[in-house]
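Something for you to look into today, if you have time. Could you write out one complete protein record for me, on any chain you like? The space below this message is yours for that.
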Amino acid sequence: MDGFIGQSRERPEQREKGKGYPDSRATHEFPPQKGPTPTLAGRWWLASSAFPLIAGTLGPVASAFSICALVRPWRQHLPPNDSTESAAYVQDPIWLTVVNAVQLAVAVISNLFLLLNMTRRVRFTIAQPITIIGWYLSVICLVTLLSLASSTALKGSEQPESDFIWSQSFYYAIWATILYFLVASLLVFTFWGAHSGHYSKDFNLSTSQRTLMLQTIVFLAHLLVGALVFSAAEDWSYLDAVYWADVTIFTVGFGDFAPTTTLGRALLFPYALIGIISLALIITSIRTMLIERGRQQIHARVQERVRRRVVQRVCLSDKNNILTPVTVDAGATDTPAPELKRRRSEFNLMREIQRKASRRRRWTAFFVSAACWITLLLLGAFVFSKCEKSYGNWTYYESFYFSYVALLTIGYGDFAPTSNSGRSFFVFWSLLALPSATILISSAGDTVGSVIQDMTILLGSVTILPAEDDFNHSLKRLIHRFTFGQVFPRSHGTIHDIESHGPPRRTHTPRPSHVSRLRERKMGAAKCDTPSKLINSATHSERWRGPDQNPLPVHQTHLDNFPTGHDLSILLVSEIEEVAKHIRESKTRRYTFDEWAWYLRLIGEHEDDPRSHRKMLAFENRQQVFQRRYDHKKWKKGKMQARADGLEQLPSIVDEGEQRKWSWVDDQSPLSGVKEESEWILAQLVHKLKESLWLTKDKLDRAPSESA
């Protein structure tokens, strides 16, 4: 996406010697404008961003479980009719403790290299193999120990085997094995994607996301150290204290464990507060990663699917002319206006596609979050029913009730796990399930909450609340929303409306003119043909009129008077300043067609020129896509050769058929990518400014030699 315009300008240093551009320029001064397709970007975002964050979050959790698997023996002696709290530990063989300690050390080293890689202290190519191999070695060690422990290696002959139970340490080893294998496998995909060239050999993470692993380590250290302190203060078993700390920090509060000493109650005040705040920071970072950062990537994939379906439907309908460029006649003088009208309709069609994709993306995120939440709820209920069957005789329904109460942090306390497997699994399950509940609630606010709010406003508009529209229109909108668009499908913002009746009247407020700033920057007397007249005209109110008032943008009237050289550079600097302000705005900027036409004109595109526009096909096979991209590369090469030879008109060098063509509704449109519109425009304006300055400098350098 990034390159349908930006890539059409090759670096001057790539041209041959003798063409007017020296080879001494460094290649980094004109970075290539590369960018994956929307579908590819969304797919590989998981491997480049999401998988490393998941590994950075769950890797320390797995090591924390390894610590829990090491601090206590794996078996306990439980005589009949005794509780698990009174069961005595049976000492493990020395070889089990040594191997367990070795795998923990290897896992800690792996986590350390992953942390150093995220903080950019160790290179990706060095840290990732060490992390992946280390975690897989931990998996092998733990699987071997668990297999030997389940066999006759730990069985003694003094007491009956029925008097022995597995301790919480044994089950923590199982949960650690699962997590180590999961995070190592995720990083394998990340490393393979980087090695295959789908993205750079580095994590595509922001600064705050790179600290997520460190936040997780601090939280787990707070939980484990706090459990050690409270186990000593309250005379609890250490692993029971870990279970209590987890229940406390997640604000579930079953009541099966509670501090009774004065010291324990006094320590609870800072411990619970710090733990809850640390947990909230981690959940906020995860939510930001999944909802905020992943939104653009997921939206690009959803939009691409919606775009293909809409294009197919439009191409097969009687509205096919909206996607067909106007034929250029040799003697025609009114070609620009019809082509501009068609491009405006095409642009509005893409805007409607974006709106549909945005709605679908929000609901997709909600249903995915709900599916994960329900899966963890049902799976947790099943495991708890198996763990507590021998101790509390829980049925599946009772386990489901307990899981639901715990997942919503209600915590009545009528049900609480008492077995070693149940308590250890609750710690493992809560670290996954409770954050998912928070993300689900956030997603519900963007979807269900928005629908309820809109329905309430619509219902009020047809009853007691005043509305801007008349009663009939408000009633139709209400029925349209309640029937999910099945009734009155053409009454409210459909694609058909935009195609038939054109876009709505523009209400955008014109931005301030840059004339005063440009005049202040000019040195000496200006020629009468400077861009000041153009800029004055381009920023007058007529530039911002609605499409039905002035279908021909003002910049088209001044094509022959468009600035060049220093004047163009000044104009580009001024526009870059304005777009940079748009990026800093809290709300994402969405530009209108007139604004896009102006910015495209600045970077060398003409919305009124049908020769650079193509007709979308209903079904485009892979060979056609490759052929289109191959023709685009040929056009770029011809354009650069024409400029190197000092020729201004491209068609004299390159056939019209070889000129790269694009459409507002194809996959190369600036509205189809993962970048925000302001970011895309800013990057292209900066690239154009670099090219303009380079061409001006080269012209000045060649002037003395030509005069001589």
